[in-house]
Amino acid sequence: MPVPASKIEPEKPQNEHSTSRHVLIVDDSRLQRKILSSSVKRWGFRVTEADSGDKALELCRESTPDIILSDWMMPGMNGLEFCDAFRRLPGESYGYFILLTSKSEKGEVAQGLQAGADDFLTKPVNAHELRARISAGERILDMQHELTEKNRLISDTLAELQRVYDSLDSDLLEAKKLQQSLVRERQKTFDTAELSLMLRSSGHVGGDLVGFFPGQPGHLGLYAIDVSGHGISSALMTARLAGYLSATAPDQNVALRRQSDGSFKFRKPSCVIEDLNNLVLDEMDTEHYFTLMLADVNLETGHMLVSQAGHPHPAVQRRDGTVEQNGTGGFPVGLMSGITFEDFEIQLKPGDRVLMLSDGVTECPNQEGDMLEESGLEKMMNNMKDMSGQKFFDAMMWNLGAFSGLDEFPDDISGILFEYSGHKIP
């Protein structure tokens, strides 16, 4: 039904975006298009006309209009079919679709909404109502434009964050390689013993470190460190501490003292830890502290002089399989000044071994939140008494995974396994 010309009143543009917005008018009636087009142009919009749904769809493929005024009843592709096809076109831009119809039944309205129409105008069209519906469409388009811009900003931000993450991830992978390289040898054979080391971070890098260094002839230094936390700053701390217990630069190793003849002698472990405590508090600007176990091992006799600074007790497994977990406990390094530490002795006999682990093992929780604790470690060692070297550590990690039900553990895990044979290993 044509729109009465008397009902169309010229109005000034009400929206600052109107002059740039594109309105597509679709109607098989030339007169209807002319009446609507004339009024919409007066309101400041750029107008394109189409006499059929097929022609309108072709125009939409070239450029998505901001607002579409389409008659429902047209030969060929009707307005409902055109709306449905329009909504299926690819692209990010949104077109506000107003369906002009003489239909007013709820079923027809629901059908139009299902096809993708945003609004309806009942013929004959009232000028004020048409302008109001177009203004409503403009508000929707403004919100859609704002949302699109925000989504684009979010996408750009996420892309930048991903680039930063990828760069950090790459750097952390390199840092992990460097940290793992601090443990140069994971397996070492001596005349009377086998030494195995294990280091596994909960993330890319961690705060655990284990190592060894030669002392005076026939002696071996062992150390196990667990810095608070397990991130980048903890890893940097372990790297610095590794320099103080260096195996390649004995002059820089605080556990060794050069003798008058040029040789080196192992200092008492308790004195070494006291010096490290003072050094951390006086010279390092850090909030980190760390637990430490330091041992002077006599490779000939199996005698160990050990000092413990908050690190878990060493687990000594005798040749018959029994496990002893004793120590002095001690206070972590880097928390308080003036702390003294004690030495204690472990005497290994042929066939005995000692295991030094970080608390990532004994404090590993299961699904119920219960930790493995020392009793669980003892049971685990009993089950693995016939395993040695790296196979022992592999089995330990498998058993720890079975206990916790986790693929990744919540804390760093490190360990030293020193197996004393008491005779020369061929």
Automatic annotation (TrEMBL):
Residues 8-20 have a biased composition (Basic and acidic residues). Residues 22-138 form the Response regulatory domain. InterPro entries: Bact_Sigma-Reg, CheY-like_superfamily, PPM-type-like_dom_sf, PPM-type_phosphatase-like_dom, Sig_transdc_resp-reg_receiver. Coiled coil: none annotated. One of its GO terms (biological process) is phosphorelay signal transduction system. One of its GO terms (molecular function) is phosphatase activity. It holds the Pfam family SpoIIE. The keyword Lyase does not apply. CDD domains: REC. The modification 4-aspartylphosphate is found at residue 71. Residues 1-20 are annotated as: Disordered. Keywords: Hydrolase, Phosphoprotein. The keyword Signal does not apply. PANTHER family: STAGE II SPORULATION PROTEIN E, STAGE II SPORULATION PROTEIN E-RELATED. This is Transcriptional regulatory protein AfsQ1. It comes from Ascidiaceihabitans donghaensis.
